[in-house]
């Protein structure tokens, strides 16, 4: 294990010092579908440590090669959108995290980018969201034979299609930025292993939703109940933001008892997501108001 760690640190140092080696490795990773996310991690790692310009000199050629290869299987517009969605959110977030050393600023940037994307789509292509949803719905109906899926689709058809499509589009955009968040977290973890051991873990355990986010959540919730399409698109993002804050406070409490149990916090989200996700979200909401980390469990008096 120690030898593996030494080799990993050696390669990470090589990424930081040898630009040609970094560019070659990142290009190779970007060419394959299941390793392209690793290319994003490398670019974010370089940006976090060496600055935005060094990250950009790796990003631009890799993104252009990825775009050119994507043209083989899809139209130019689709290839361009895929390129933007894969590389640029994580790169900009890495720039912000390096400059401000604040994950709140990162999520603020993501929220702004999602909001601008939603407004852009609603203004320039208002029918795109519904058309995309109908296409996906028909595709699922033709390919799925599961009775539960068919029943779910029939239930959704009884609801306003614009409402369902807006929430679905919000989840689709959220998945892009969630992927960017995971890549950025991986890059930050690598940086921490080299230069600030334990720093990344402390950042994750101390992450807390802001009070401003509660006001944003309430405004979006009210607007969504009044069928505002942009609010419906943004609402899933804010909910996941509070969910991550709830995971952080839960991890903070578990870490006080036994740090080896931290990964078990993810298990309920996999086995019982409809129960655990609301729980973590509500916990994140409460933590943003009361800062639950200051409350420590008092030992019982014996005697």
Short description:
The chain is mainly α.
Major sheet summary line = none
Shape: globular
What is the rounded Rg? 21 Å
Number of domains: 2
Number of strands: 0
What is the percent of helical residues?
Answer: over 70%
Mean pLDDT: 87
Uncertain regions: pLDDT < 50 for 5+ in a row? 297-303
DSSP strand content: under 5%
| Tally of alpha and pi helices | 14
* Helix-strand string: HHHHHHHHHHHHHH
Q: Give the end-to-end Cα distance, rounded to a whole number of Å.
A: 47 Å
Computed structural class:
mainly alpha
Give a structural overview.
- With 303 residues, the chain is an all-alpha fold.
- It folds into 2 domains: 1-205, no CATH class; 207-303, no CATH class.
- Helix content is 81%, strand content 0%.
- It has 14 helices and no strands.
- It has helices at residues 2-17, 19-30, 36-50, 52-70, 76-100, 103-124, 128-143, 147-157, 161-195, 199-205, 211-225, 229-257, 267-271, 273-290.
- α6 runs antiparallel to α12 (229-257), α7 packs across α9 (161-195) and α11 (211-225) runs antiparallel to α12.
- Residues 297-303 have low confidence and may be disordered.
């Amino acid at each position: 294990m120690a030898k593996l760690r030494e080799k990993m640190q050696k390669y990470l140092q090589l990424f930081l010092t040898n630009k040609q080696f970094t560019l070659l490795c990142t290009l190779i990773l970007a060419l394959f579908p299941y390793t392209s996310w690793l290319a994003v991690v490398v670019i974010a790692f370089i940006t976090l440590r060496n600055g935005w310009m060094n990250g950009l000199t790796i990003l631009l050629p890799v993104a252009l090669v990825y775009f050119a290869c994507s043209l083989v299987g899809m139209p130019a517009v689709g290839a361009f959108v895929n390129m933007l969605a894969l590389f640029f959110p994580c790169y900009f977030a890495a720039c912000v995290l390096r400059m401000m050393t604040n994950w709140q600023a990162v999520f603020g940037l993501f929220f702004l980018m999602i909001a601008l994307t939603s407004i852009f789509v609603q203004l320039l292509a208002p029918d795109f969201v519904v058309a995309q949803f109908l296409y996906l719905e028909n595709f699922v109906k033709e390919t799925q034979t599961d009775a539960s899926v068919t029943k779910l689709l029939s239930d959704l058809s009884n609801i306003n299609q614009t409402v369902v499509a807006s929430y679905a589009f919000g989840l689709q955009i959220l998945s892009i930025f969630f992927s960017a968040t995971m890549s950025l977290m991986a890059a930050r973890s690598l940086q921490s292993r080299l230069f600030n051991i334990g720093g990344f873990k402390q950042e994750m355990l101390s992450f807390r939703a802001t009070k401003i986010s509660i006001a944003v959540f309430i405004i979006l919730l009210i607007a969504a109940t009044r069928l505002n399409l942009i609010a419906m698109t943004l609402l899933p993002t804010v909910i996941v933001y509070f969910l991550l804050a709830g995971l952080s406070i839960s991890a903070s409490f578990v870490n006080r008892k036994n740090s080896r149990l931290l990964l078990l916090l993810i298990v309920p989200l996999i086995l019982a997501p409809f129960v655990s996700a609301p729980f973590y979200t509500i916990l994140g909401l409460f933590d943003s108001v009361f800062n639950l980390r200051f409350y420590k469990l008092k030992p019982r008096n014996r005697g």
